[in-house]
Each structure stands twice: as structure tokens, then as C-alpha cells.
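Q: Protein A?
A:
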Amino acid sequence: MNYYSFEYPYLIVLLPLLLYCLYRCKEYAKQKYFVHLHLFKAGKGFLKLEWILKVLSLVLLTIALCSPIVIDKDNPYNRLGKDIVLAIDASGSMNSSGYAGENDFLDIDEEQDITRLSRFEITKLVLKDFIGRRETDNLGVVLFGDFAFIASPITYEKEILKDMVSYLTQGMAGQNTAIGEALAMVVRAFKHSKAKTKIAVLLTDGEHNSGAIAPKDAMEYIKKEKIKVYTIAVGNKGEADNALLEKIAKESGGVFFGASNAKELLSVYEEIDTLETSKIKSREYLHKEYYYQLFLLLSLLPLLLLFYLKVRR
């Protein structure tokens, strides 16, 4: 939805002053510098065509001076919600199949045999559904394996984020599991966040076995930045380091979840969906269209007509 405004609305105060001067100011016989001011001399009656043309031209010129604009209202200055970073394990073990047994959740082709999809592919589908339901939140994505990287900075553009998730592939960050690197990258993703509530959801099916940063060291930064971390152990019991994930969640004020199949994973994200809201500041990406040129051109029409009437006399 668009709305109309002015870049310099305060300049509209010039209009009554100019109109008053047009009607009351005395006309000089000869002008040394502004030789065409006689075109704006006051007429004796309000209804005279010449006076109407002068007023119309001044009104249009003043509007052009105020710079009328059309602004895209879909990009507000403030939104209610949370800043959420989704940290996804893309290690070799996430390539395992058999994680889903039923075709009963959103964004899956009915003709597709989801039992053949890997844990990583199932996770992507669940994440896209989760992203689609976070209407008032900013979200970002961190991918980790041997190392971690920010796949998407925190953004409000949900459709773009869902498309980006679709392009993620298992193994993009290596085949091992660097949980410490993932936590450190989560902190970095929140660097410019203005939200009071910062949430991270870390999903993995393995144990920390890679990276230069230990989870213990990374947690110091997590606690310093007051980031609440929800951890999810994917797969069969014992595959992930549940003790470490529970510790991460407990120390950061989050909750640990286990999800042995796709349906449980969905329920986990639904529970996370009940988090409290906080006010966040989103960057101002407002698309403005300027229309002062149109009003400048329109103001020339009554001036040209006025000049024509003067010449014909």
C-alpha cells in the first residue's frame, strides 16, 4: 500500500504569503532586474481569468517546491516482534534419510516421497514453514559444519529468506560439526540488532568435533549479549550431544528439545513460536517516487496562457 506526502511540507506556509502579496502588493511601472514580474500584478477582481491563472500558477509552483512524493507503506519504521537467528547443522550426518514418515505438513509436494528426503531437506521445509508464520519478526540464518557462516543476515523479507533457504545444501560448510563456531557466528549475526529479545534456535544431530572456538568460550559471548538459545537435537537418541545442548540452553535462558522425526520437529518450532514479542527497529528501506517535475510542468500552462492573453491585447 502506498501513501502520499511531501518531502518539505513546511514550505506550504509560503503559499498564503505569496497569494497575499499577489493581491495586495503594488505594481511598479518598470522592473530593472525581474522584468517579468508584471505578469503577476494584482487584478481588480477575484473572478478575472488573469488573476485566476496567476493564483493557479503560484499554487502549483508551491506544491512543486514542497516536493510531493509517493511512499511505499509496506516498509514501516517500527515493527513488533523478535530478532531470531536460525542456526542449522549442514554436516555429513544431516544427509541421513528416514527422518519423515508422513506427508502431513506444509510446503511439501503430495507426489513427493518425503521418506526419501534427508534430515537436512526435511529441516529446510520445516524452517520455511516456520519463517512464513513469523509475520512480525526479523530472521537470519547461520549454517555450520566444519565452520560457520551467515547464510542470511537478519531481515524482514520473509519470501527472500525462504528462497535463500531453498538453495542451501548439505555439506556447504563441511562434513563435521562446529557448534562453538555456530554460536560465535550467531553473536556476530546479532551485531546490529536493536531488539530487546534476541533468540537463536540451534539445530544439530551431532557432537561438537570441529572448529577453532569451543562451545564454552562461545557461550561467554552469548551470555554477554543476552541471547536466548533454544537447542534442538535432531535424530535418534544418543546421536547428538544432548548434555552439551541442554547446557547451552540452560545457561542462556532457553530450552532444550529433542526431535526424532519431522512431526516432532514441527511441534518444537510451534512451541518456540509462542515466544514473547518485543519492539524492534527495522532499517528504513522506503521506496519514494518524486512528482515535483509534474507540478512544475503544470505550473507552466497557466503562465503560458497568461502570456498569450497579454500578447493578444
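Q: Protein B?
A:
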Amino acid sequence: MTTPQAGIVITLTEIYAEVRDMAKTVGRVDTTLNDFRKEVTTQLQDHETRIRADEANRWPRATLGLYATVAAGFGAVAALFIIR
């Protein structure tokens, strides 16, 4: 076995301490990511709800416009037959 160079000695205790610190850091990152995921999921659900409500409010207006156009067309055709 070779002797370590002067000033570069890393013990198993130091390695263990670094691994424990890394595990704590990974745990904090995991917690932060879980919180972020929950927030994004909540925002996505809210966004989806608002889009669905907007779509539900928009379709009746378009349908009413279509019905009005069809009624006007029937009225015009009826007027042609009545005028004759």
C-alpha cells in the first residue's frame, strides 16, 4: 500500500459525514420537489376548471347565433312564398 501524500488524508469518518450531509440535502430537495409538484397540480386543476367554465359559457352563445341564423333563413324563405 502506498503512503498518502502530505496534506491529503481523508478518513472514513469524514467520508461518512459527507455521505450523511448529502443524504440530508437529497431529502430536502425531495421535500421541495414534492411541495412544488403539489402546487403545480393545484394550479393545473384550477386552470383546467377555469378553461372548462369558459368553454361552457362560450358554446351557448354560438348555438344561439346559429339558431338565429337558421330562423332568419326560414323567415326569408317563408317571406318569398308569402309574397308570391
